[in-house]
Design brief:
By secondary structure, this protein is an alpha/beta fold. The protein has 14 helices and 14 strands. The protein is globular. Bound molecules: pyridoxal-5'-phosphate.
């Protein structure tokens, strides 16, 4: 609806699946004078971050922090461990898996892609079957997304590890946790992951522009023989400088102040409580979508995402037009749709620094937008979400089992 109002009142509902809303505490933590990045105060800050971030990935090994978006950490994972022409196994869970695969091709790797219809996560049995056929053990890495941001499907990382072991395969295991880290349980060490790729702008509640590689001993050993060219991404230079609290180049100091606050906030809430909150908000969102009579894109509940719910639009209704109307009228943004699903769905992000009331507000805006856009649906989605949230607080165990 055309409007001549140039100011929008109130806070924006940022329901894209990241960047997620920035907590005021993190903003304040970043609002400090620039310090000397070769001085003692910086070294203290860097060491606090480098130690603290391990507790988020659940690893005792080093985590490399890059001044780069998640795409950079994808590249770092590949170029530090692999050599030109190496075969890598990837799973086509959606748009982001496809982008990582295209990157692998551009780097001179030979990705093999297990296809899906983009409506499920990575199936451990399919990974096992593919690896069993590789008798010569030529596949050097298995790369999966823990959470496929473009579809709202979560993959069972611990199960995929077991599948690789059952196949008796020695490939490195690389996992992208950009839209799952600090929102749902993740255990780099316990789950036997060799490189975990993470990003700042989602569960860590930071602005975009920082990303991570958590590494195993096996990955560090592979790095010694890897032949792909690397300079900025080199783990070796980073690890050497990190030991003394510095970086090989001018680091993003303000982001590190923010990261330090983010790690504190996650532990103050308690990681398990953070995960329970995300699970509750995700289930409440799915209940709203079902009550509206709309379809959740993820077609198998075992792959439901704790951070994103993608909603299929009914035939004849354009998701982009709906998103535009919702933005103009109710000041809410959703994630867009990609590739073969362009215009056919929209994604509700429910991750980061959000609580029950905030989510209910966003779902109310969504229900109003559906009505205003004339999208066929039933009323009562917000009520269903509220009922679930109340029951989850009254009896968390029962709600989790439902
Ligand atoms: N992987 C996943 C799962 C993502 O969601 C994204 C971005 O949203 C990326 C990789 C790429 O990260 P970035 O856009 O920070 O480069």
């Amino acid at each position: 609806m055309a409007s001549n109002i140039s100011r929008t009142a109130g806070r924006h509902f940022l329901q894209i699946p990241g960047p997620s809303p920035l907590p005021d505490r993190i903003l304040r933590a970043m609002d400090t004078p620039i310090i000397d990045h070769r001085g003692p105060e910086f070294a203290k800050l860097a060491k606090r971050c480098l130690e603290g971030i391990k507790t988020i990935f659940k690893t005792t090994n080093p985590v490399i922090i890059y001044t780069a978006t998640g795409t950079g950490a994808w590249e770092a994972a590949l170029v530090n461990t692999l050599s030109p022409g190496d075969r890598v196994l990837m799973v086509e869970t959606g748009q982001f898996a496809t982008l990582w695969k295209k990157m692998a091709e551009k780097l001179g790797l030979k990705p093999e892609f297990i296809a899906t219809d983009w409506r499920i996560g990575a199936d451990p049995a399919a990974v096992e079957e593919h690896l069993r056929k590789d008798k010569a053990r030529e596949i050097k890495a298995v790369c999966v997304l823990h959470n496929e941001t473009s579809t709202g499907c979560l993959s069972p990382v611990a199960e995929i590890r077991k599948a690789i072991d059952r196949a008796g395969h020695s490939a490195l295991f690389m996992v992208d946790t950009i839209s799952s880290l600090a929102s749902t349980d993740y255990r780099h060490d316990e789950w036997g992951v060799d490189v975990t790729v993470g990003g700042a702008q989602k569960g860590l509640m930071l602005p975009p522009g920082m990303s991570f590689n958590a590494v195993s001993d096996k990955a560090l050993a592979a790095a010694k023989n890897s032949k792909l060219p690397k300079s900025f991404w080199s783990w070796e230079d980073m690890l050497n400088m990190n030991k003394i609290g510095f970086f090989p180049y001018t680091p993003a100091t303000q982001m590190l102040h923010g990261l330090s606050a983010s790690i504190d906030m996650l532990h103050e809430e308690g990681l398990d409580n953070v995960f329970a909150r995300h699970a509750r908000l995700a289930e409440a969102t799915r209940r709203a979508v079902r009550a509206w009579g709309l379809e959740i894109m993820c077609r198998d509940p075992k792959y439901y995402s704790p951070t994103i719910t993608a909603v299929m639009m009914p035939e004849g209704h354009d998701a982009d037009a709906f998103r535009n109307l919702a933005l103009e009228t109710f000041n809410i943004s959703y994630g867009m749709s990609f590739a073969k699903f362009a215009g056919k769905m929209f994604r509700i992000g429910h991750l980061g620094d959000i609580n029950d009331g905030y989510l209910v507000g966003a779902l109310a805006a969504t229900e109003m937008a559906l009505a205003l856009a004339g999208v066929p649906h039933k009323k009562g989605g917000v009520q269903a979400a509220m009922d679930y949230i109340v029951s989850a607080h009254a009896s968390p165990a029962r709600a989790a089992a439902e």
